[in-house]
């Protein structure tokens, strides 16, 4: 009985070592823009041998071989690049593709963070797997520091504001992803997480989908104090002119509280720090 117990303990504690035994990965494929940005921020850019068509930051990544989209990566392209590890995400990559990679004995890591609060731990775990623990820790602490500093950041409401509910007064905010057709950031998004972190109220937080279609009438009814408009693939200011004219009496437009954002707030990665600070400035 004692021998069986010792054998069990040896097996239990040696399993993780066996799982990660061998050389550390030198050829990495990243299947999402946010994991690509994280890998570069941890100093692993030189080891990345393949990325998706949507990976466009930092600039160096544009020279990397492409393996297709996030939802439909090419298995043939991935295999041809002979990766030591493929970094995937639960937020956009199909589970079936992970299973196909594993069936081919291709080592696969799944980045599980989907919300802002989960990002620091996700970075630490990825850094540990790729043997860049110290760099990952620095990156995670920077994000945590920004989150702690900005937590419940909510400047005094302007005199015209109608924001707040439940006895807690907050600035009412709308984040427009695209003006025509009108698409906004709803619940479960990184943007909604940041709005909440900053102590404001996302007027689209009760929508049924993450990026719902919205109506002019609802914007007027909700009367947001601040409107954010995200970066698009074309001149977003020009595209937004008609919408802003139609809601010109809404407080955010009437009192010039419309802010055009960079794309740093769109991805759950290192640049979210910049996005948080941008939104905080607009909420002053």
Shape: elongated
Q: Provide the number of structural domains.
A: 2
**Termini distance?**
68 Å
Question: CATH topology of the largest domain, what is it called?
Answer: Rossmann fold
Assigned CATH architecture of the largest domain: 3-Layer(aba) Sandwich
State the helix count: 11
Total strands: the figure is 9
What does this protein look like?
The chain folds into 2 domains: 20-148, Nitrogenase molybdenum iron protein domain (Rossmann fold, 3-Layer(aba) Sandwich); 172-282, Nitrogenase molybdenum iron protein domain (Rossmann fold). The chain has helices spanning 2-19, 33-41, 75-80, 95-103, 119-129, 133-150, 190-197, 216-222, 236-246, 251-254, 272-282; strands spanning 28-30, 48-50, 85-89, 108-111, 172-178, 183-184, 201-202, 226-229, 258-260. The radius of gyration is 22 Å and the shape is elongated. With 284 residues, the protein is an alpha/beta fold. 39% of the residues lie in helices and 12% in strands. The strands form 2 sheets. Strands 5, 6, 7, 8 and 9 form a 5-stranded mixed beta sheet that branches. Strands 2-1-3-4 form a 4-stranded parallel beta sheet, with helices on both faces. A hairpin with a 4-residue loop joins strand 5 and strand 6. Residues 1-22 have low confidence and may be disordered. Helix 5 (119-129) packs antiparallel against helix 6.
